[in-house]
Every structure is written in structure tokens, then in C-alpha cells.
Amino acid sequence: MTTNISMFNLAEKSALVTGGGAGIGRACATALAMAGADVLIADINEDLGEKTAASIRQLGVKSLFVKCDVSSEKQIKAMVVAAAEGFGKLDIAVNNAGIGVVSEEDEKFPKSEWDKLMAVNLGGLWLCNKYQAQQMIKQTPSQGKIINIASIAGLVSLPISNGAYDASKSAVIHLTKQLALQWGRFNINVNSISPSYILTPQMAYTSLEFRKRVRETTPLGHMQRPEDLYGPILYLASQASDYMTGQNMVIDGGHTLGPWIEPAKAREVPPRVSIEQELAGMKKDLDVLGIAYDEDGVVLS
């Protein structure tokens, strides 16, 4: 095993990222490409996915786009085949595609929305893992890294979430453990990441007061940006994590450490990231999506 910084080098590795067009998915794809991996971008939004694949190619690696709805088993199979045929193999898979909260009130939440959310966040993720593992198993040598994107909503109940979303993310965390238990015999590592309130386009619909409260209850003092996942993704995708499997990495700036009754202790120094820096990535995604917003990154009604 390499024992220096080159263990994080992903040159000659191939990866796929679901939901890779924007937000967390784009950040994951960017991190992998910066480390040298070729990356297939899978997304339901064709325009967004093609633009992200083009930006990835500017980093000097190969990148393909495949339109994929992860609630469709047929499309998932085609996505994995496209990665294997396009790059010759599949070494790394990041399963990020998911849908968020429609309603905060479970007593009013329609079963049709529950079914839709579970079909994507859990059923689709399981199918992705299944066909990714099949590809990795039949390769020589048999090995691979699968990374599932969960959420702190799978660990604690959040005030702007609901039972469907929280249950789906809890299930992702435990599914990851079970698959890691099964597929270790093929040298396939399966781990998950649980981010906090991360500034994706969906978060542009939250109020300034809500964001202020998140900062106050996060010890590191700023809201999470997609690029805050660069390090964790690179670690889990690389040789550095070869002896880690079935684990859930909580990347939340310390948000889940306290009960949120009171803000974290008053800051002695400024956070590493300013509010302007927080918003940069989200505003870029909103621009690509054609969504109007104000100077604070709040969507205009």
C-alpha cells in the first residue's frame, strides 16, 4: 500500500455520480476529477448534467453524461453499462440522487408522495448499489468503492423535515452497513456520508432567519457548502480508506453535537467561511437552473 499523499491519487480510476448535475453531486464529481478520475455524470436533468460533464472535462479527465431516473431499474442498468463501456471499468460509485421534503406535516403527507420519495431515496439507491456491485465483482481484480449519500436527518429529527425523508435516510445508513457486510468478500468498500444543511438549490427557499439559526447552532459557525465534501469523498474513494467499510461519516460542522436549545458558544474568531463564500456554489447552481434570487441567495417569489 502506498504510504504517502499519492494514496489519494485517482488517476486511471473511473467513477460515476448519480444526481451529479448540481449541488452535492457536482461537488463529488469535481473532487473525484480533481484527483484524476474519469467521471460519468448521471442526472435526470439533461441540460444540467451535460453542462457539468463539460466542466469536468475542463479538469483534464474524461467525462460522460447519461440521463438517468434512479426510480427506473432499466435506466440504472444502462447507466452502469455506460460507465463500464465508456471507461473500461467502474472503480467508484457515488449514489447521491434523491428528492427532498414536500411537506413538513406527516398527518397531511400523501401516501403517493411517500411512495415517490422512497422509490428514489431508498429503492433507487439500493438498485444502484446492486448493479454497481455486480459490475465491480466481475472485473479483474474484483474491487471497488461505493459511497452512499445519506443525511443527518437519518440520525436526528430535523425541524424542516418529515417522516418519509428521515426514514429514507436512516434506511440508507443501515443499508450501507448490510451491503458492506456482504460485499467485503469481493473487496468492495461501502460507506455513507451524512451532510448537514448543505447549500444546494433547494436551500435557496429557506429564510435568512433559518440560516442564521443554523449558523448559531453549528460550532464551526457557517452553513455547509457542497465543496465541504471534497475531502470526505476523496478519502472514501481512494486507497486511503481501504480498511474502512460500513461506516457513516457525519460531516456537519458539529451541528448534531448539541441539543439546539441554545446557540453554540460565542465565537472567539471568525468562521473559516464567510456568508458570501457560503453562497457562491448555490448561486452558481441557481444561475444554471435559471432560478431568480436576491443578493442573500433567497429565491424570489
Description:
Strand 1, helix 1 and strand 2 form a beta-alpha-beta unit. The protein is built from eight helices and seven strands. It has a seven-stranded parallel beta sheet with strand order 3-2-1-4-5-6-7, sandwiched between helices. 40% of the residues lie in helices and 13% in strands. It has one domain (5-289): Rossmann fold (3-Layer(aba) Sandwich). The mean pLDDT is 94. The protein starts with 13 loop residues before the first strand and ends in a 12-residue tail after the last helix. The protein is of the alpha/beta class and 301 residues long. Helix 1 crosses helix 7 (230-237) and helix 4 (111-138) runs parallel beside helix 5 (163-183). The protein has helices spanning 23-34, 46-57, 73-87, 111-138, 163-183, 208-216, 230-237, 275-289, and strands at 14-18, 38-43, 63-67, 92-95, 144-149, 188-195, 248-251.
Per-chain topology:
Elements: E1 14-18, H1 23-34, E2 38-43, H2 46-57, E3 63-67, H3 73-87, E4 92-95, H4 111-138, E5 144-149, H5 163-183, E6 188-195, H6 208-216, H7 230-237, E7 248-251, H8 275-289
Parallel strand pairs: 1-2, 1-4, 2-3, 4-5, 5-6, 6-7
Helix pairs in contact: 1-7, 3-4, 4-5
Which terms summarize this structure?
single chain, 301 residues, alpha/beta, Rossmann fold, seven-stranded parallel beta sheet, 8 helices, 7 strands, 13% strand
